[in-house]
Amino acid sequence: MDYFEVRDLHVAIEGKEILRGASLSVKQGEVHAIMGPNGSGKSTLAFVMLGHPKYAVTKGEVLLRGKNVLEMKPEERAKAGMFLSFQYPFEISGLKFSKFLFEAYKARFPQEKTNVIQFQKLLNEKISQLQMNEEFAKRELNVGFSGGEKKRSEILQMLVLKPELAILDETDSGLDIDSLKLVSSAVNHMRSPNFSAIVITHYNRILKHLQPDIVHVMVDGRIVESGSRELAEKIEEKGYAKLYNVAEAKS
Amino acid sequence: MKREKERALTEMDYSKYDFHYDTKDYEVILEKGLNEKTVREISRIKNEPEWMTETRVKAFKHFIQRPMPTWGADLSEINFDEITYYMAPRKNAEDNWEDVPEYVKKTFDRLGIPEAEKKFLGGVGAQFDSEVVYHKIREDLEKQGVVFLSMDDGLKQYPEIVRKYFGKIIPFNDNKFAALNTATWSGGSFVYIPKNTKVDIPLQAYFRINAEKMGQFERTLIIAEENSQVSYFEACTAPRYSSKSLHAAVVELVALPGAHIRYTTIQNWSNNIYNLVTKRAFAYKNASVEWLDCNFGSRVTQKYPSVYMLGEGSKAEVLSIALAGQGQHQDAGAKAVHVAPNTTSRITSKSISKDGGRTSYRGLVKVFKGAKNVKSSVRCDALLLDEHSRSDTYPYIEIDEPTATIAHEASVGKVGEDQIFYLTSRGLSEEQALTLVVLGFIQPFIKQLPMEYALEMNRLIEMEMEDSVG
């Protein structure tokens, strides 16, 4: 039994099937990449792994240490160590970033009796690791954040919440080279036998920094090929259309 | 699932407020129902001057012939014959907690009033059903000439001032419930701030309805003399009963030239209260008036704090929030009436509807001819927590002056599945997530409150959100 498994997952939204038998298996400590053309179901897979209520799972299983994740609420999945870095994080006006993250931290580590001051210290360490300004913690959650700030904010949350399985949904999109390096090194920093990651991306460039153990290609709601790092390079060179006989993406 | 959710809501934990004492030890309980005899009896018990008795009777006559207003919330269930219009544990206010009847003291102890007084208040008034049972102002303020009394004592000790202003800001015939209040008023606060005096710690009044089928009609009058400043807080609660009670207050503020009054209300009535309140301020030259109005609880609230800017350069600010849950209708808003030139007003309204509750923003911005260079901005934001809740806006704008600059913005937001998913995917429960979204939404209001009240507000919101997730 692997640490994390997706078995023959079928998912529909408003009656339309988006995932059509996706399967995936991640061992502890591994970093996997999922590539694929637009509309192939990558973000859907990310949302379903954390339990977005909009998606209906019609068939299949998602297992974390053999336990059926699909029966768990999103907050239970988070408490079990899962984390999703959102491609488009949602804004919550009036909610201070640090207050939100402190609440999340207490939910994730209920046994720790961390007080506000200790938490602030921890948060500031992680903020400086990402070369951000401490004032950031006082801002309203995702409100008025630039594209790059949103991505850094997601990674900052990951550093603080120390997940065991992180799913990064296009965290590299819209990042400049410097930010990309920072984000990548933050993920690398977390790599340990107790940390696994699934990195969803369109580009090979983040994978150069992250050196994933396995690269998957998702087309039309299924994983159609899995391989080593070289697979990403092959895709970059040739494109999905040629390799997998799919139409050029519309968007 | 849904039924469970509704059951949870009706059993919402109001335990902190949900207790009451028997009325057997009350000094006075008048018979239920209202007639001229009752009105005269209230005045007689209070040993009032004749002009006040006659004012009451005149108001009563207006009340009975004035039709029920039908433009707002549904008031058809109010039965004026079933209400007791005057009942008092004691007829007079004490200034020593030790002299207050034991059960009354217990009530206010449980609500944390004596503790708050010690910690951060400049004065406290506590009203239990019809009468103010305790009233105390800090000595240093008293020495500066600041007056903070029950309205009844105000009338006794400062009859000329009361006669000069009583009913002048809100005439008895302003509306049906102002007439009712003028006829039956009892309790409330009388505040007088002398010229150039700045009171920088809040004065607080606490209104408690204890008995069933009770009408509470407090009357408050605040006069801030030239260049003075005062911050006044009122808090209201009641235990739950299955029968309806009525709260119809009248609050009159007078901000003389250069004066500043801030009036904050944190109302958390139980869901059986009809809360129909008239609040109005006159602001003279360069004076400013702020209403901070928080409406939780009650079955129906109709309340539109108003500022009449009578003097040049005067300012009005009204910041209000309302939360309506199952079976509740909060019809709240504000009125800014610009009579003089160079006056400015800002109205901000935030409303939250959940579990089938209904909020309405109803507001008026009026600019009289000749009131040049008026600036007014109105912003109302509504947040709907589910599909079967409702929110409406009724903004009235009457401008008779071309130089006015008026801005109006309104938004209705729904708490999205996506927002909640974002927060729950970080480990927060759905209830916590909703609470944080709601707290964030009313943050502009909370920011305006002193810390002690801000904490209380957070706690109230958390309590309101408890079990509201199915």
Question: How would you concisely characterize the structure shown here?
Answer:
By secondary structure, chain A is of the alpha/beta class. Chain A has 9 helices and 10 strands.
Detail the topology: elements first, then pairings:
The complex is a heterodimer of chains A (251) and B (470).
Chain A: E1 4-13, E2 16-26, E3 31-35, H1 42-50, E4 56-64, E5 67-68, H2 74-79, E6 82-85, H3 97-108, H4 116-129, H5 147-161, E7 165-169, H6 177-190, E8 196-200, H7 205-210, E9 214-219, E10 222-227, H8 229-238, H9 240-244
Chain B: H1 2-10, E1 28-29, H2 36-45, H3 50-65, E2 87-88, H4 102-110, H5 113-120, E3 123-128, E4 131-137, H6 139-143, E5 147-150, H7 151-157, H8 159-165, H9 176-184, E6 189-193, E7 203-208, E8 215-216, E9 219-224, E10 229-237, E11 245-247, E12 250-255, E13 260-269, E14 273-283, E15 288-297, E16 300-303, E17 306-309, E18 315-324, E19 329-338, E20 344-353, E21 358-367, E22 375-384, E23 390-399, E24 405-414, H10 417-424, H11 430-441, H12 443-446, H13 451-465
Tell me about this structure.
The complex is a heterodimer of chains A (251) and B (470). Chain A has helices at 42-50, 74-79, 97-108, 116-129, 147-161, 177-190, 205-210, 229-238, 240-244; strands at residues 4-13, 16-26, 31-35, 56-64, 67-68, 82-85, 165-169, 196-200, 214-219, 222-227. By secondary structure, chain A is an alpha/beta fold. Chain A has a domain at 4-89 and 163-244: Rossmann fold. In chain A, strand 1 (4-13) and strand 2 form a beta hairpin. In chain A, helix 5 runs parallel beside helix 6 (177-190). Chain A is globular, with a radius of gyration of 18 Å. The termini of chain A are far apart. Chain B is built from 13 helices and 24 strands. In chain B, helix 2 (36-45) packs antiparallel against helix 3. Chain B has 470 residues and is of the alpha/beta class. Helices cover 25% and strands 36% of the residues of chain B. Chain B has two domains: 14-416, no CATH class; 417-470, no CATH class. The A-B interface holds A 47, 50-54, 73-75, 77-79, 83-84, 86, 89-95, 99-101, 103-104, 107-108, 140-141, 157, 161 and B 416-419, 421-430, 432, 436-437, 439-444.
